[in-house]
Design brief:
Largest sheet: 4 strands, antiparallel
CATH topology of the largest domain: N-terminal domain of MutM-like DNA repair proteins
Number of strands: 10
Helix content: 10-25%
CATH class of the largest domain: Alpha Beta
Radius of gyration: 20 Å
Structural class: alpha+beta
CATH architecture of the largest domain: Alpha-Beta Barrel
Strand content: 15-25%
Order of helices and strands: HEHEEEEEEEHHHHEE
Distance between the termini: 28 Å
CATH superfamily of the largest domain: MutM-like, N-terminal
């Protein structure tokens, strides 16, 4: 499933085509995504202008001139593609200088936005686990999809004190806590593994161990927040990670998978300078965890 860096990369790629542009036409080829699109979905978008394109955790948020917000989620395999009038992928502002022809899997193009900018934005989703929903801006705080999300890990407010308070007294593993969207929003399996390695913390460590009895952060919490921010920033710069289905809006694969330190590197030498450990794979909460048992304590 695309995680925060992939969604942020997607947002940046969509921004030049959608922000400030009007929906001139919306084609819905299939409305049975993760949940059915509203019957008036196209009507509520057509003629409206995208006044801002943001992100909350793994959700894209398009503010509309009508006062509504279009909430979009990529699901397991969803992606947006931007095309110019000649059918080629738009260069846009996705990281990197790549240029590729349009994907030929037209049967999976479920929703198509025709924008006044001259661009066509296509939502392609082979598994149809993605979703779109239109809600009123003044009701956004009550939206079930968003209201229980934790803090944005790249936000200024997210620091060691905030993470320590969220983990105080937790009996779960540190890996499980970081994967909980109520503790911190947008992280998934890949970047939790990578952040824990950068912080030199074991994924099996109790989450409560990054805070003292009062909930104040210790040195582990400081290292962990620094590791989370660094790995996300690096991944966004690289255009995300290409595992299975993730592609950027320009059709190119993200490149961060070439920088993985531990994820999917079972049996490889630990990249930490001076460490003689070997990357190990274990299963936690039904998901693969990759870490170095020697330098991650």
């Amino acid at each position: 499933m695309p995680e925060l860096p992939e969604v942020e990369t997607m947002r940046r790629g969509l921004e030049p085509a959608m922000e400030g542009a009007r929906f001139t036409k919306v084609d819905v080829h299939r409305g049975d995504l993760r949940w059915p699109l509203a019957k008036d979905f196209a009507r509520r978008l057509e003629g409206r202008t995208v006044t801002g394109l943001g992100r909350r955790a793994k959700y894209l948020l398009a503010d509309l001139s009508s006062g509504d917000v279009l909430i979009m989620h990529l699901g397991m395999s969803g992606s947006f593609h931007v095309f110019q009038k000649n059918g080629d992928h738009a260069d846009g502002q996705s990281p990197g200088n790549y240029y590729h022809r349009r994907s030929q899997h037209l049967a999976h193009d479920h929703v198509v936005f025709h924008m006044s900018s001259g661009a066509t934005v296509t939502f392609n989703d082979p598994r149809r686990f993605g979703s779109m929903k239109i809600v009123a801006r003044d009701k956004l705080d009550e939206e079930p999809l968003l209201r229980r999300l934790g803090p944005e890990p790249l936000g200024n407010a997210f620091d060691a004190a905030m993470l320590a308070r969220a983990c105080k007294g937790k009996k779960t593993s540190l890996k499980a806590a970081l994967s909980d969207q109520r503790v911190v929003a947008g992280l998934g399996n890949i970047y939790v593994c990578e952040a824990l390695h950068r912080a030199r913390l074991s994924p099996k460590r109790l989450a409560a161990s990054i805070a003292d009895k009062t909930g104040a952060p210790n040195e582990r919490a400081e290292r962990l927040v620094a590791g989370i921010k660094a790995v996300l920033e690096d991944a966004i710069e690289a255009g995300g990670s290409s595992l299975r289905d993730h592609r950027r809006t320009d059709g190119e694969l993200g490149m961060f998978q070439h920088r993985f330190r531990v994820y999917d590197r079972e049996g490889a030498k630990c990249p930490t300078l001076g460490c003689r450990g070997t990357v190990r794979r274990i299963v936690q909460n039904g998901r693969s965890t990759f870490y170095c048992p020697l330098c991650q304590k």
